[in-house]
Amino acid sequence: MPNRTVIIGTGSALPCRLVTNKDLEAVVETSDEWIRTRTGIEQRYLIGEGETNSFLAARAAKKAIEMARIRPDDLDLIIVGTFTPDMPMPSVACLVQKELGAKKAGAFDLSATCSGFIYGLSIADKFIRDNRKMKILVVGSEVLSRRTNWSDRTTCVLFGDGAGAAVVTGVREDRGILSTHLHADGSLGGLLTIKGLGTAQPVTAEMLGLGWQYIQMQGKEVFKYAVKALEAVAWEALSANNWTTDQIDLLLAHQANIRILDFLRERLGLSEDKVFININKYGNTSAASIPIALDEANRSGLLKPGMRLLMVAFGGGFTWGALAMRW
Ligand code: UT7
Description:
The chain is α/β, with parallel strands linked by helices. It contains 11 helices and 13 strands. Helix 3 packs across helix 4.
Protein backbone atom coordinates (compact mmCIF):
# COMPACT_ATOMS: atom_id res chain seq x y z
CA MET A 1 0.00 0.00 0.00
CA PRO A 2 1.56 3.36 -1.00
CA ASN A 3 1.68 6.33 1.38
CA ARG A 4 -1.50 8.38 1.34
CA THR A 5 -2.04 11.92 2.61
CA VAL A 6 -4.83 12.35 5.14
CA ILE A 7 -6.26 15.45 6.79
CA ILE A 8 -6.06 15.06 10.57
CA GLY A 9 -7.19 18.51 11.65
CA THR A 10 -9.03 21.51 10.25
CA GLY A 11 -9.62 25.03 11.51
CA SER A 12 -10.94 28.37 10.33
CA ALA A 13 -11.01 31.97 11.47
CA LEU A 14 -13.12 34.95 10.51
CA PRO A 15 -12.48 38.57 11.32
CA CYS A 16 -14.64 40.58 13.69
CA ARG A 17 -16.54 42.96 11.43
CA LEU A 18 -19.81 41.62 9.98
CA VAL A 19 -20.91 43.62 6.92
CA THR A 20 -24.33 42.89 5.44
CA ASN A 21 -25.56 43.70 1.94
CA LYS A 22 -27.76 46.37 3.52
CA ASP A 23 -24.62 47.98 5.01
CA LEU A 24 -23.11 48.14 1.52
CA GLU A 25 -26.16 50.00 0.20
CA ALA A 26 -24.75 52.98 2.13
CA VAL A 27 -21.31 52.59 0.50
CA VAL A 28 -22.05 52.14 -3.23
CA GLU A 29 -25.10 52.19 -5.48
CA THR A 30 -26.23 48.61 -4.99
CA SER A 31 -29.03 46.64 -3.38
CA ASP A 32 -29.37 43.60 -1.19
CA GLU A 33 -31.62 42.14 -3.89
CA TRP A 34 -29.01 42.56 -6.68
CA ILE A 35 -26.21 41.06 -4.60
CA ARG A 36 -28.30 38.09 -3.44
CA THR A 37 -29.72 37.21 -6.83
CA ARG A 38 -26.55 37.77 -8.88
CA THR A 39 -24.08 36.21 -6.39
CA GLY A 40 -25.84 34.41 -3.50
CA ILE A 41 -23.96 36.58 -0.99
CA GLU A 42 -25.87 37.94 2.03
CA GLN A 43 -23.02 39.11 4.24
CA ARG A 44 -19.24 38.92 4.67
CA TYR A 45 -16.70 39.42 7.47
CA LEU A 46 -13.98 42.04 7.12
CA ILE A 47 -10.93 42.75 9.25
CA GLY A 48 -11.15 45.34 12.00
CA GLU A 49 -8.71 46.97 14.37
CA GLY A 50 -5.58 44.86 14.96
CA GLU A 51 -6.54 42.04 12.58
CA THR A 52 -4.23 40.97 9.75
CA ASN A 53 -3.89 38.10 7.30
CA SER A 54 -1.26 36.35 9.49
CA PHE A 55 -3.41 36.86 12.58
CA LEU A 56 -6.34 35.06 10.90
CA ALA A 57 -4.05 32.39 9.43
CA ALA A 58 -2.49 31.64 12.83
CA ARG A 59 -5.90 31.46 14.52
CA ALA A 60 -7.15 28.95 11.92
CA ALA A 61 -3.87 27.02 12.19
CA LYS A 62 -4.09 26.74 15.99
CA LYS A 63 -7.55 25.18 15.71
CA ALA A 64 -6.36 22.70 13.08
CA ILE A 65 -3.32 21.76 15.18
CA GLU A 66 -5.49 21.28 18.25
CA MET A 67 -7.85 18.98 16.35
CA ALA A 68 -4.88 17.06 14.92
CA ARG A 69 -3.59 16.52 18.49
CA ILE A 70 -0.07 17.50 17.58
CA ARG A 71 2.27 20.17 18.91
CA PRO A 72 3.39 23.12 16.75
CA ASP A 73 6.95 21.82 16.81
CA ASP A 74 5.77 18.55 15.24
CA LEU A 75 5.19 20.49 12.00
CA ASP A 76 7.72 19.97 9.21
CA LEU A 77 6.34 22.51 6.76
CA ILE A 78 3.90 25.43 6.62
CA ILE A 79 2.37 26.43 3.28
CA VAL A 80 0.10 29.48 3.07
CA GLY A 81 -1.93 30.14 -0.08
CA THR A 82 -2.50 33.88 -0.31
CA PHE A 83 -2.18 36.87 -2.60
CA THR A 84 -2.94 39.40 0.13
CA PRO A 85 -0.02 38.96 2.57
CA ASP A 86 0.60 41.31 5.52
CA MET A 87 3.68 42.55 3.60
CA PRO A 88 5.96 41.27 0.81
CA MET A 89 8.54 40.02 3.33
CA PRO A 90 8.46 38.13 5.65
CA SER A 91 5.85 35.79 4.22
CA VAL A 92 2.58 35.05 6.01
CA ALA A 93 3.88 31.48 6.45
CA CYS A 94 6.92 32.77 8.38
CA LEU A 95 4.72 35.03 10.51
CA VAL A 96 2.50 32.03 11.28
CA GLN A 97 5.55 29.89 12.05
CA LYS A 98 6.70 32.51 14.57
CA GLU A 99 3.24 32.87 16.14
CA LEU A 100 2.85 29.09 16.51
CA GLY A 101 6.41 28.52 17.69
CA ALA A 102 6.72 25.83 15.01
CA LYS A 103 10.52 25.88 15.23
CA LYS A 104 11.19 22.80 13.08
CA ALA A 105 8.99 23.85 10.16
CA GLY A 106 10.02 25.29 6.81
CA ALA A 107 7.58 27.95 5.67
CA PHE A 108 6.56 29.62 2.43
CA ASP A 109 3.68 31.44 0.76
CA LEU A 110 2.17 30.21 -2.45
CA SER A 111 0.55 32.57 -4.94
CA ALA A 112 -2.25 30.84 -6.82
CA THR A 113 -5.17 33.13 -5.81
CA CYS A 114 -8.42 31.24 -5.24
CA SER A 115 -6.78 27.91 -6.12
CA GLY A 116 -4.12 28.38 -3.42
CA PHE A 117 -5.46 25.79 -1.00
CA ILE A 118 -5.71 23.06 -3.65
CA TYR A 119 -2.25 23.97 -4.96
CA GLY A 120 -0.94 23.88 -1.36
CA LEU A 121 -2.49 20.49 -0.57
CA SER A 122 -1.13 19.16 -3.82
CA ILE A 123 2.45 20.12 -2.84
CA ALA A 124 1.97 18.72 0.67
CA ASP A 125 0.71 15.47 -0.86
CA LYS A 126 3.92 15.08 -2.90
CA PHE A 127 6.09 15.45 0.24
CA ILE A 128 3.97 13.00 2.22
CA ARG A 129 3.94 10.38 -0.53
CA ASP A 130 7.75 10.38 -0.08
CA ASN A 131 7.70 10.43 3.72
CA ARG A 132 4.47 9.57 5.48
CA LYS A 133 5.77 10.73 8.87
CA MET A 134 5.77 14.37 7.80
CA LYS A 135 3.22 16.76 9.23
CA ILE A 136 2.35 19.72 7.09
CA LEU A 137 0.12 22.71 7.77
CA VAL A 138 -1.68 24.04 4.69
CA VAL A 139 -3.50 27.36 5.06
CA GLY A 140 -5.59 29.53 2.74
CA SER A 141 -5.82 33.05 4.13
CA GLU A 142 -6.86 36.37 2.60
CA VAL A 143 -7.52 39.98 3.48
CA LEU A 144 -9.23 41.01 0.28
CA SER A 145 -10.85 44.07 1.85
CA ARG A 146 -7.48 45.88 1.71
CA ARG A 147 -7.24 45.24 -2.04
CA THR A 148 -10.85 46.19 -2.76
CA ASN A 149 -11.89 49.47 -4.33
CA TRP A 150 -14.77 50.49 -2.09
CA SER A 151 -16.17 52.78 -4.77
CA ASP A 152 -16.35 50.02 -7.41
CA ARG A 153 -19.69 48.27 -6.99
CA THR A 154 -18.80 45.60 -9.53
CA THR A 155 -16.17 44.15 -7.15
CA CYS A 156 -16.58 45.50 -3.61
CA VAL A 157 -19.78 43.58 -2.90
CA LEU A 158 -18.16 40.25 -3.71
CA PHE A 159 -15.27 39.72 -1.34
CA GLY A 160 -14.74 38.77 2.30
CA ASP A 161 -11.74 38.18 4.56
CA GLY A 162 -10.95 34.93 6.38
CA ALA A 163 -8.67 31.93 6.80
CA GLY A 164 -8.92 28.16 6.79
CA ALA A 165 -6.30 25.53 7.61
CA ALA A 166 -5.64 21.80 7.50
CA VAL A 167 -2.94 19.60 9.04
CA VAL A 168 -1.97 16.67 6.84
CA THR A 169 0.16 13.60 7.40
CA GLY A 170 0.60 10.15 5.88
CA VAL A 171 -0.95 6.70 6.37
CA ARG A 172 -0.68 3.36 4.60
CA GLU A 173 -4.40 2.94 4.20
CA ASP A 174 -6.90 3.11 1.38
CA ARG A 175 -8.06 6.67 2.06
CA GLY A 176 -6.80 10.24 1.82
CA ILE A 177 -5.81 12.27 -1.25
CA LEU A 178 -6.16 10.19 -4.40
CA SER A 179 -5.30 12.69 -7.11
CA THR A 180 -4.63 16.39 -7.68
CA HIS A 181 -4.98 18.32 -10.93
CA LEU A 182 -3.43 21.77 -11.38
CA HIS A 183 -3.89 24.13 -14.32
CA ALA A 184 -3.19 27.72 -15.30
CA ASP A 185 -3.62 30.07 -18.25
CA GLY A 186 -1.48 33.17 -17.84
CA SER A 187 -2.65 34.58 -21.17
CA LEU A 188 -5.98 35.48 -19.52
CA GLY A 189 -4.45 37.04 -16.40
CA GLY A 190 -5.55 40.56 -17.36
CA LEU A 191 -9.22 39.70 -16.79
CA LEU A 192 -8.70 39.50 -13.02
CA THR A 193 -5.76 41.49 -11.77
CA ILE A 194 -4.15 43.89 -9.33
CA LYS A 195 -1.97 45.87 -11.72
CA GLY A 196 0.04 47.88 -9.22
CA LEU A 197 1.94 47.44 -5.95
CA GLY A 198 4.31 44.91 -7.49
CA THR A 199 7.79 45.83 -8.67
CA ALA A 200 6.85 46.40 -12.32
CA GLN A 201 6.33 50.08 -11.70
CA PRO A 202 6.90 52.50 -8.85
CA VAL A 203 4.03 53.48 -6.63
CA THR A 204 3.05 56.93 -7.89
CA ALA A 205 0.11 59.21 -7.27
CA GLU A 206 -0.93 58.58 -10.88
CA MET A 207 -0.93 54.81 -10.39
CA LEU A 208 -2.95 55.09 -7.20
CA GLY A 209 -5.35 57.46 -9.00
CA LEU A 210 -5.97 54.76 -11.59
CA GLY A 211 -6.89 52.32 -8.81
CA TRP A 212 -4.13 49.87 -9.73
CA GLN A 213 -3.72 48.95 -6.06
CA TYR A 214 -7.14 47.29 -6.21
CA ILE A 215 -8.62 44.11 -7.64
CA GLN A 216 -9.98 44.76 -11.12
CA MET A 217 -12.18 42.12 -12.68
CA GLN A 218 -14.08 41.70 -15.91
CA GLY A 219 -16.70 39.66 -14.10
CA LYS A 220 -18.72 38.37 -17.04
CA GLU A 221 -15.63 37.10 -18.87
CA VAL A 222 -14.21 35.52 -15.71
CA PHE A 223 -17.56 33.83 -15.09
CA LYS A 224 -17.52 32.23 -18.56
CA TYR A 225 -14.01 30.82 -18.16
CA ALA A 226 -14.64 29.76 -14.55
CA VAL A 227 -17.64 27.56 -15.33
CA LYS A 228 -15.90 25.88 -18.27
CA ALA A 229 -12.63 25.28 -16.40
CA LEU A 230 -14.32 24.05 -13.22
CA GLU A 231 -16.48 21.60 -15.09
CA ALA A 232 -13.54 20.30 -17.15
CA VAL A 233 -11.27 19.81 -14.14
CA ALA A 234 -14.06 18.08 -12.21
CA TRP A 235 -14.45 15.56 -15.07
CA GLU A 236 -10.66 15.16 -15.20
CA ALA A 237 -10.55 14.24 -11.49
CA LEU A 238 -13.52 11.88 -11.83
CA SER A 239 -11.98 10.11 -14.78
CA ALA A 240 -8.54 9.82 -13.07
CA ASN A 241 -10.22 7.89 -10.24
CA ASN A 242 -12.80 6.00 -12.30
CA TRP A 243 -15.54 7.71 -10.33
CA THR A 244 -18.98 8.37 -11.70
CA THR A 245 -20.68 11.60 -10.65
CA ASP A 246 -23.13 9.73 -8.43
CA GLN A 247 -20.17 8.45 -6.42
CA ILE A 248 -19.33 12.01 -5.30
CA ASP A 249 -20.47 12.39 -1.70
CA LEU A 250 -19.56 16.06 -1.38
CA LEU A 251 -18.38 18.78 -3.75
CA LEU A 252 -16.34 21.48 -2.01
CA ALA A 253 -16.01 24.17 -4.65
CA HIS A 254 -14.50 27.64 -4.38
CA GLN A 255 -17.29 29.96 -3.31
CA ALA A 256 -17.24 32.76 -5.92
CA ASN A 257 -20.85 32.90 -7.07
CA ILE A 258 -23.92 30.77 -6.28
CA ARG A 259 -24.71 30.71 -10.01
CA ILE A 260 -21.34 29.06 -10.70
CA LEU A 261 -22.05 26.46 -7.99
CA ASP A 262 -25.55 25.83 -9.42
CA PHE A 263 -24.13 25.47 -12.91
CA LEU A 264 -21.57 22.91 -11.71
CA ARG A 265 -24.20 21.00 -9.78
CA GLU A 266 -26.42 20.78 -12.85
CA ARG A 267 -23.60 19.83 -15.24
CA LEU A 268 -22.44 17.05 -12.90
CA GLY A 269 -26.01 15.98 -12.14
CA LEU A 270 -25.55 16.31 -8.37
CA SER A 271 -28.35 16.78 -5.88
CA GLU A 272 -28.37 19.98 -3.80
CA ASP A 273 -27.23 18.24 -0.62
CA LYS A 274 -23.99 17.17 -2.33
CA VAL A 275 -22.75 20.70 -2.99
CA PHE A 276 -21.43 22.57 0.03
CA ILE A 277 -22.53 26.20 0.10
CA ASN A 278 -21.52 28.95 2.50
CA ILE A 279 -21.01 31.88 0.11
CA ASN A 280 -24.13 33.47 1.63
CA LYS A 281 -22.27 33.93 4.94
CA TYR A 282 -18.74 34.83 3.86
CA GLY A 283 -18.72 36.07 0.26
CA ASN A 284 -15.73 35.18 -1.90
CA THR A 285 -12.71 34.68 0.38
CA SER A 286 -10.39 33.46 -2.41
CA ALA A 287 -7.82 30.92 -1.11
CA ALA A 288 -9.65 30.71 2.22
CA SER A 289 -12.99 29.63 0.78
CA ILE A 290 -12.35 25.88 0.40
CA PRO A 291 -10.56 25.38 3.76
CA ILE A 292 -13.28 27.35 5.57
CA ALA A 293 -15.91 25.16 3.88
CA LEU A 294 -13.90 22.02 4.71
CA ASP A 295 -13.65 23.02 8.35
CA GLU A 296 -17.37 23.76 8.57
CA ALA A 297 -18.24 20.45 6.93
CA ASN A 298 -15.83 18.64 9.25
CA ARG A 299 -16.93 20.28 12.51
CA SER A 300 -20.63 19.88 11.69
CA GLY A 301 -20.15 16.11 11.36
CA LEU A 302 -21.00 16.09 7.66
CA LEU A 303 -17.80 14.27 6.73
CA LYS A 304 -17.91 10.54 7.36
CA PRO A 305 -15.03 8.05 7.00
CA GLY A 306 -14.74 6.78 3.44
CA MET A 307 -16.72 9.64 1.89
CA ARG A 308 -15.61 10.71 -1.58
CA LEU A 309 -14.80 14.42 -1.65
CA LEU A 310 -14.12 16.47 -4.73
CA MET A 311 -12.59 19.94 -4.33
CA VAL A 312 -12.46 22.37 -7.27
CA ALA A 313 -11.25 25.97 -7.48
CA PHE A 314 -10.74 28.70 -10.05
CA GLY A 315 -9.19 32.14 -9.72
CA GLY A 316 -6.98 34.93 -11.01
CA GLY A 317 -3.92 34.02 -13.03
CA PHE A 318 -5.96 32.21 -14.28
CA THR A 319 -5.34 29.20 -12.06
CA TRP A 320 -7.64 26.29 -11.44
CA GLY A 321 -7.48 22.81 -10.02
CA ALA A 322 -9.17 19.83 -8.44
CA LEU A 323 -8.43 17.35 -5.69
CA ALA A 324 -10.15 14.01 -5.15
CA MET A 325 -9.98 12.32 -1.77
CA ARG A 326 -11.53 9.70 0.43
CA TRP A 327 -12.16 11.14 3.89
O1 UT7 B 1 -12.94 34.08 -7.33
C1 UT7 B 1 -12.33 34.18 -8.58
C2 UT7 B 1 -13.23 33.97 -9.68
N1 UT7 B 1 -14.25 34.97 -9.73
C3 UT7 B 1 -15.41 34.68 -10.26
O2 UT7 B 1 -15.59 33.56 -10.64
C4 UT7 B 1 -16.42 35.77 -10.44
C5 UT7 B 1 -17.13 35.57 -11.75
N2 UT7 B 1 -18.07 36.61 -12.09
C6 UT7 B 1 -19.24 36.81 -11.43
O3 UT7 B 1 -19.50 36.18 -10.43
C7 UT7 B 1 -20.26 37.78 -12.00
O4 UT7 B 1 -19.86 38.14 -13.30
C8 UT7 B 1 -20.44 39.08 -11.15
C9 UT7 B 1 -21.16 38.73 -9.88
C10 UT7 B 1 -19.09 39.69 -10.85
C11 UT7 B 1 -21.30 40.08 -11.93
O5 UT7 B 1 -22.55 39.49 -12.26
P1 UT7 B 1 -23.13 39.64 -13.74
O6 UT7 B 1 -24.43 39.00 -13.75
O7 UT7 B 1 -22.09 39.12 -14.68
O8 UT7 B 1 -23.32 41.19 -13.85
P2 UT7 B 1 -22.74 42.20 -14.93
O9 UT7 B 1 -21.32 42.50 -14.63
O10 UT7 B 1 -23.09 41.75 -16.31
O11 UT7 B 1 -23.63 43.46 -14.61
C12 UT7 B 1 -25.05 43.46 -14.86
C13 UT7 B 1 -25.59 44.81 -14.45
C14 UT7 B 1 -24.79 45.98 -15.00
O12 UT7 B 1 -25.72 47.02 -15.29
P3 UT7 B 1 -26.19 47.30 -16.81
O13 UT7 B 1 -24.95 47.54 -17.57
O14 UT7 B 1 -26.90 46.04 -17.21
O15 UT7 B 1 -27.09 48.48 -16.64
C15 UT7 B 1 -23.93 46.39 -13.88
O16 UT7 B 1 -23.57 47.77 -13.92
O17 UT7 B 1 -25.52 44.93 -13.03
C16 UT7 B 1 -24.82 46.13 -12.70
N3 UT7 B 1 -24.10 45.90 -11.46
C17 UT7 B 1 -24.62 46.11 -10.24
N4 UT7 B 1 -25.82 46.58 -9.85
C18 UT7 B 1 -26.05 46.69 -8.54
C19 UT7 B 1 -22.84 45.43 -11.32
N5 UT7 B 1 -22.53 45.34 -10.00
C20 UT7 B 1 -23.63 45.77 -9.32
C21 UT7 B 1 -23.91 45.90 -7.96
N6 UT7 B 1 -25.14 46.37 -7.61
N7 UT7 B 1 -23.03 45.59 -7.00
